[in-house]
Amino acid sequence: MLHNRLAAARAFLQRFDVDAVLFSDIKDVRYVSGFSGSEGALLLDETDVFLFTDSRYTTQA
């Protein structure tokens, strides 16, 4: 399921000719990545996904 969500987000990038998208609302971060922490941001481009969070979530990330 998460793979489908990442694929849909990447399709958005291609459709609108965008290089990357930053998800900063934790609800969106959870939806796209499955991350269940209370703080974080997700940067997605055509090939990579980066999760930014504080040290409380190092193991989970």
List keywords for this structure.
61 residues; alpha+beta; three-stranded antiparallel sheet; 2 helices; 21% strand
Describe the protein.
There is one protein chain. The protein is of the alpha+beta class and 61 residues long. The protein has one domain: Creatine Amidinohydrolase, Chain A, domain 1. Helices cover 36% and strands 21% of the residues. It has helices spanning 2-15, 26-33; strands spanning 20-23, 41-45, 49-52. A 3-stranded antiparallel β-sheet has the order 1-2-3.
Class from secondary-structure proportions: alpha+beta
* Percent range of helical residues: 25-40%
Question: What's the pLDDT, averaged over the residues?
Answer: 91
The quaternary structure here is single chain
Summarize the structure.
Helix content is 36%, strand content 21%. It is α+β, with helices and mostly antiparallel strands. The model has no long low-confidence stretch (mean pLDDT 91).
How would you summarize the topology of this molecule?
Blueprint: H1 2-15, E1 20-23, H2 26-33, E2 41-45, E3 49-52
Antiparallel strand pairs: 1-2, 2-3
